[in-house]
Write a structure and sequence with these properties.
Strand order of the largest sheet: 3-4-6-5
Shape: globular
Strand content: 5-15%
Mean pLDDT: 92
Number of helices: 8
Low-confidence stretches: none
Distance between the termini: 15 Å
Helix content: 40-55%
CATH topology: Muramoyl-pentapeptide Carboxypeptidase, domain 2
Order of helices and strands: HHEEHEHHEHEEHH
Structural class: alpha+beta
Bound molecules: zinc ion
Length: about 240
């Protein structure tokens, strides 16, 4: 059984990595930490162009992810014709994440009296360090409103309950669910195409453990990369690893 799984995993691995690096466009390491221009990558697509409702016009996902998300959306509209569903943010590269991280760092500096440890863990409640975000991979996106209470009533509740029941059929899971004792807080708006993401997570871990990222990262607070990056990347819903 374990052997069968190992062989299947190995074959999947080969297939996925053949696809993403098919045109020698970039190295595995750069891909895993989001150091590439996804809008120019041949495996990425602007999701508005295929009919997925969006908040902004410049949202990209990997083609396979976008196709599955479109199918999910079409079924959601069939089941719930009055529901409103849109994608708020999708792929983000390393440099964008660095901006988000450093802006928050500056914002929290006063409040936490320049205690870098406290600043880092405060940001990590909801935001990733550059090079550690699942949004780098083109597999993850945020929907509608980035506020858990939105999903407790009305439209938010309606789509959230539908997704909890149906998203898995299309290959999606919610990585930052309840029932975890570490990592980011609950994010009912963040969804992931885990069929691809679980492979990248595995590859990310291998590269991290071999210190392959060290020379590639540079941001305020990077001294916490060693301590927190691995924990936060891996503290996810176990359903996303099936
Ligand atoms: Zn997100």
């Amino acid at each position: 059984m374990i052997m069968k799984f190992a062989i299947r995993f190995f074959i999947l691995n080969l297939l996925f990595f053949k696809t993403i690096f098919s045109q020698n466009y970039l190295q595995e390491r750069e891909f895993l930490i989001g150091q590439f221009e996804f809008s120019k990558h041949p495996d990425f697509i602007n999701i508005k162009q295929i009919g997925i409702p969006v908040k902004r016009n410049d949202l990209f996902l990997q083609k396979e992810v976008a196709e599955q998300l479109l199918k999910l959306y079409q079924q959601l509209k069939k089941d719930l014709p009055n529901a409103e569903f849109w994608v708020t943010s999708a792929t983000r590269n390393y440099w964008h994440q660095k901006q988000i991280w450093e802006n928050k760092w500056n914002q929290y500096q006063k409040q936490y009296k320049n205690d870098p440890q406290q600043i880092a863990t405060k940001i990590l409640e909801y935001s990733s360090m550059p090079a550690t975000s699942r949004h780098h991979w083109g597999t993850d996106f945020d929907i509608n409103i980035l506020d858990n209470s939105y999903y407790e009533r009305g439209n938010g509740k309606m789509i959230y309950e539908w997704l909890k029941k149906n998203a898995k059929k299309y290959g999606f899971c919610m990585p930052y669910n309840e029932n975890r004792n570490t990592g980011y807080r609950l994010e009912k708006w963040h969804w992931s195409y885990y069929k691809l993401a679980k492979i990248y997570q595995q590859k990310w871990n291998e590269s991290f453990q071999n210190n392959l990222f060290d020379s590639k990262i540079d941001f305020i607070g990077k001294e916490f990369f060693k301590t927190y990056a691995f924990i936060y990347v891996n503290a996810i819903n176990t359903e996303c690893l099936e």
